[in-house]
Amino acid sequence: MSKSNNNFFANLKYDLPAGLVVYLVALPLCLGVALASTGRSDLLFSGIIAGFVGGIVVGSLSGSNLGVSGPAAGLVVIVLGALDSLGSFEAFLLAVVLAGVIQVIAGLLKAGIVGYYFPSSVIKGMLAAIGITLILKEIPHAFGYDVDYMGDQTFQQSDGQNTFTEIWNAVDYISPGAIIISIVSLALLILFDRPFMKKIGLFKFLPGALFVVLIGILLNTVFAQMAPGFVMAGEHLVQLPVASSLNEFFSFFKTPDFSAFSNPQVYTVAITLAVVASLETLLSVEATDKLDPYKRSTPTNRELVAQGIGNITSGLIGGLPITQVIVRSSANIDSGGRSKFSTIFHGSILLLSALLIPRLLNFIPLASLAAILLMVGYKLSKFSLYQSMFKLGKEQFIPFIVTIIAILSTDLLKGIAIGMVVAIYFILRKNFKHSYYYEKEEQHDGDVIKIILSEEVTFLNKGSINDTLSKIPAGSTVLIDGSKSIDIDYDVLEIIQNFRTHTAPLKDITVLTKDIMVVEGNGAH
């Protein structure tokens, strides 16, 4: 038997329970994102389609060991706007297919390299912000106030409320049944997280999240018999579409309207979806790799191709657009997932359960699932993360905190953009200071100043070098030494040449160079 097969079977005891936890997290998120994206209860199954395609198709093709893909809350506004502009869900499905084609092409052209340029401080800020967002957004569901959809990550909600007013409103609509289920669920999750529980054979394989769901169903059944006022029903339970026959089940699947090829709006939507979905995926890939206890690296170009094929598949059978998503990926890692089989397994049981046991799934209280997501949020935003970032200094801590605040007050992509601006400021500031070494020697015939350039001198260093040259005192001798440099950008060479030929003679400065190319006209030699 091959080593890979040995690894597969060795990892099964970790991947199966992890996949089950991811499934329990993904189920309400797929339904919530579908309802928020389409505003139609008859299209709820589009979220389930995207969920199992993300698990099975993308999971199989991706090079990520722990990343989980599915419908994402970050695309809700785009989907809503697209449905309005395109006029039909079937035309939108065509845009999803085309978005997938664009992603495949981007991956083949190696555009995934963009994923390597997100600063660590911003990625860690994103993780912490998503953790806080999960906690704040799930509190109303834990209270039994289920007006906003599960999985929402935006500050301003579609119902006119925001993250904080939603919590305030939830206080006025507290359900005793939901509170009891939430408290018991959290207690169980904390108990299952204790080291002694993990030594018990049964609980190594059956995750705490499964018991949370079963206890939630049991408690709600008891309420129905003994305390009807505590019962959770209707919108407070999972609401998976139920087919009365196999034919009706297959009717949940849709196909694109290929006649919409002539509609230019389809291409605009496709490009928008491809760009946003790819950015969210690359951000999630970077974050997941940081959380991976084995620190494995995901090939980003392959990921874009996998996501593209996933979106083509999802669009062809009636699903929402797909991205890799950090909440499900984080749940996978926290649950002990080791390989991509946990992702594939979660997608498989998502499909099979929707086909075989939808009525049973609709007994699950959202309060139970909220408790699971509250624990995921806590683990993403532990206090130790803030301590470690603070110890790294202000160049890491400030972009980290700014990213958190920006995401909490806007949404994921806007928050990341703001965090990136702050992080880039500190990168430029560091480049400004460390592009060269400055030495000054006093001699009888005047000061000799040495400017020793660093290994890599780019256009980002133009400002600092130009500033230094402009401050060299008249009558000095300056040696600009490029012997340690592997590469000096043309822009920097041009500044040095302009200083030597124009500025220095006016100030009686003698300029000597070492291993510096002379710039003439539009070239250098």
From TrEMBL:
Upper lineage: Bacteria, Pseudomonadati, Bacteroidota, Cytophagia, Cytophagales
Superkingdom per UniProt: Bacteria
UniProt subcellular location: Membrane
Main location: membrane
Regions crossing the membrane: 20-36, 43-62, 93-118, 173-193, 205-227, 266-285, 349-377, 397-428
Any one GO biological process: transmembrane transport
One Gene Ontology term, aspect cellular component: membrane
Native organism: Dyadobacter jejuensis
Keyword field contains Plastid: no
Record protein name field: MFS superfamily sulfate permease-like transporter
